[in-house]
Design brief:
mainly alpha
Length: 139
């Protein structure tokens, strides 16, 4: 299960990077379609990262929340800085960064508050903890 969530997370990180680099925002309006898309993709990235980290038993919910928020905000800032220096016809957009950060905080807090406990019920029990001897006919 961890592997599946890890693969989904890595694929989504690639999607976020591609959308961020190859579809630069226009700076004509305060809120553009690109920024709405950024809000959604960074919110989904936060959701996937929290879902993946929830499988790790050694992390408390507060640690997962703070690591998710910090990691996605740092990722967003790095994307904006790289766009400023390495992508032609693009420049650093503080509004994008603020919108991405807001989406991350909003989705992460909502996930922790409303989804966390439901996801814990969906996580399957490992086979090592299950006693299979009665089902196999052993006593």
């Amino acid at each position: 299960m961890k592997l599946i969530f890890s693969i989904i997370l890595l694929m989504w990180i690639a999607v976020v990077a591609i959308i961020s680099f190859f579809y630069p925002a226009s700076n004509d309006a305060l809120i553009t379609n690109h920024q709405i898309v950024n809000f959604l993709i960074y919110g989904i990235l936060s959701l996937f990262l929290m879902s993946r980290m929830q499988f790790e038993k050694r992390y408390s919910p507060q640690t997962v929340l703070s690591v998710t928020i910090s990691a996605v905000i740092i990722f967003s800032g790095t994307i904006e800085i790289v766009r400023e220096f390495y992508v032609q016809h693009s420049r650093l957009n503080i509004i994008n960064f603020v919108i991405n950060s807001f989406a991350t905080v909003l989705v992460s807090v909502a996930y922790r508050k409303w989804i966390w406990n439901h996801m814990k019920q969906l996580i399957p029990v490992s086979f090592k903890k299950m006693d299979m001897t009665p089902a196999l006919g052993y006593s």
